[in-house]
Amino acid sequence: MTSHAAALLSAPRAALTPGTLDTPAPADDEVLVRVRAVAVNPVDWVVQGTSRITYRWLRTPAVLGSDVAGEVVAVGAAVTRFRVGQRVLGLATGTDRGRDPLREGAFQEYTTLLERLTAPTPDSLSDEEAAVFPLGLSTAACALFQSPHLGLRMPGDPAPGTARGVVVIWGGSTSVGMNAIQLARAAGYDVVTTASARNAATVRDLGADAVVDHRSPSAVAELVAAVGGRPVVGAVALGAGSTDACIDVLTRTGGDRLAMASTPVALDALVCRRRLFPAMLPVFARIGLGTLRSTLHARRRGIRANFVWGSSLRDDEMGPRLWGEVVPRLLAEGSLRPMPAPLVVGDSLDAVQGALDRQRAGVSAQKIVVRL
Ligand SMILES: NC(=O)c1ccc[n+]([C@@H]2O[C@H](COP(=O)([O-])OP(=O)(O)OC[C@H]3O[C@@H](n4cnc5c(N)ncnc54)[C@H](OP(=O)(O)O)[C@@H]3O)[C@@H](O)[C@H]2O)c1
């Protein structure tokens, strides 16, 4: 058996350290990938800093990371869409309950990806660009297309001859938001969104027809005005304060579906505390109470609000359809662009911990990427 290098989480809350793992053979429905670029998401430093509470099932040592681009070096017996040598991008789900956090984590030289969560990388994209998609795109798709959320038609589904419908996306300059704008437009919906002034032109260029600054005290009224009486098919809430703001917009525009992707309290301050206990108690109490209060608030206004889990498409029909049909087609057409733009912060696994810290410090329409 051969071995390879990995950035290991050796214990909950530890810094990532270099390690060596046995290189696995792919299972029947997997491809083994030589990883060439990884991107970082907020969940990576959240899991690193709080997994004793938030990801209690996660055993260590573990390999974190969701976003993978690289090349296929082996295919499982049942794989039909990929061959050895092909460049791919895909969603690694090793930190999810019931998955293998060593075989299926992104931050290592070789990882396994499920065929159904993998797409070919077109020649027009570098690996660094391809790595920005997986979790942002998957979370956006869950929010827009899964039936507990907005339940919208997917790109390629026939559109009815009636009015197109508007999707409200609070947080259009986030990674999830930029993918949501593009997917909603590709499915034939109009989009109104938020972004700071410096990112307004970028999100407009992705297809939003109105952009409002999420820091503006009149942001809700401005979004309602931007909807302009068109039918609202739902809202996606991304970022602090987004859930209550979306409930207000939906109430005033007649929309009745809300996909919530962010916790009501950010966890970045907690993650860097030397001890989780007792600092976690008021934070998690506020998250629990805030979520309950918002859900009840939504229900009283006739709005169905559910929390999105970006990797849940692994277990439904939407995932294989997204990764097997929609993503390859949109990438080949050039109608799905790698946004936020990659910001490459290193060239080796040693750079991954710094990349997590950089993401936690805050980004603005940038995806932190490490090349391997
Ligand atoms: N539930 C899931 O499965 C799942 C999966 C992925 C992400 N998420 C969550 O979704 C959110 C977005 O994640 P991401 O990786 O896409 O984020 P990201 O790219 O790190 O987000 C950075 C952007 O957030 C925007 N922003 C900051 N505060 C905001 C606010 N109050 N309202 C709206 N936008 C705000 C900033 O916009 P400007 O610079 O333009 O101000 C910045 O460009 C996070 O809360 C993350 O934890 C959830």
UniProtKB/TrEMBL annotation:
InterPro entries: ADH-like_C, ADH-like_N, ER, GroES-like_sf, NAD(P)-bd_dom_sf, Trans-enoyl_RdTase-like. Residues 7-370 form the Enoyl reductase (ER) domain. It holds the Pfam family ADH_zinc_N. Transmembrane segments: none annotated. This is Zinc-binding alcohol dehydrogenase family protein. It comes from Microbacterium algihabitans. The lineage of its organism: Bacteria, Bacillati, Actinomycetota, Actinomycetes, Micrococcales.
